[in-house]
Design a protein that fits this description.
- With about 190 residues, this protein is an alpha+beta fold.
- The chain has three helices and ten strands, in the order ββααβββββββαβ.
- Strands 5-6-2-1-8 form a five-stranded mixed sheet. It has a five-stranded antiparallel sheet with strand order 4-3-7-10-9, with no helix packed on it.
- A hairpin with a 4-residue loop joins strand 5 (about 80-85) and strand 6.
Length: about 190
């Protein structure tokens, strides 16, 4: 995964753009009903439809996104599908979509924006790419900064209490493995 935090000219966070590249096993499952073209690609219309289906299915899960401002959950507006593509050499599907905030917010040191993107059931592991996983885009102030902390998976597994596995709906396990992202902005100038 790669995540872009989209800042407006007023130094408010307006949206998050998420790019997911799926492994070759999920990709094979996702495109199994599509007809491959002679060049090894798939029709763009099929890939676009797949992106839209993914967004519709993720709606009830808030798009696997937990975003807060000063500790309070931020409501998301209607997502915008941006791109779906298939890499025939790697056999991987990549989708990109934007999650606009219902109301843009001003992240500060005392009221940061925090973000976790994860499957609550941990059925799907979501990991950031190693190089350039997080970006500030749009019109960020020079004083804006993103900090990310990724828990050590082995340490998490060995320290989880038994109750972490007994949640009846299984929707809290994934949070333990999620990267914690914090966005703050100061009073710097552009």
């Amino acid at each position: 995964m790669r995540t872009d935090m989209v800042m407006g000219p007023d130094q408010k966070l307006e949206a998050i753009t998420i790019t997911w590249t799926f492994d070759e096993f999920y990709t094979a499952f996702a495109v199994q009903d599509f007809q491959k073209q002679k060049d090894g690609s798939y029709k763009q219309a099929d890939l676009d439809a797949l992106l839209n289906i993914n967004l519709e299915n993720l709606k009830e899960w808030n798009y696997f996104t937990d975003i807060k401002h000063a500790g309070k959950p931020l409501p998301l507006a209607t997502p915008k599908p941006l791109n779906a593509r298939y890499d025939d050499k790697l056999g991987q599907l990549t989708i990109t979509f934007s999650l606009p905030l219902e109301q843009p917010v001003q992240p500060t040191a005392t009221a940061p924006v925090t973000l976790q993107i994860y499957d609550p059931t941990y059925y799907i592991a979501i990991d950031y790419v190693k190089e350039a996983p997080l970006h500030l885009t749009g019109a960020p102030d020079k004083s804006c900064a993103i900090k990310a902390t990724t828990p050590d998976v082995e340490s998490v597994w060995t320290s989880l209490p038994e109750s972490a596995f007994s949640n009846p709906d299984g929707t809290t396990l994934g949070r333990n493995f999620a990267t914690n992202v914090t966005l703050t902005c100061g009073n710097g100038t552009k």
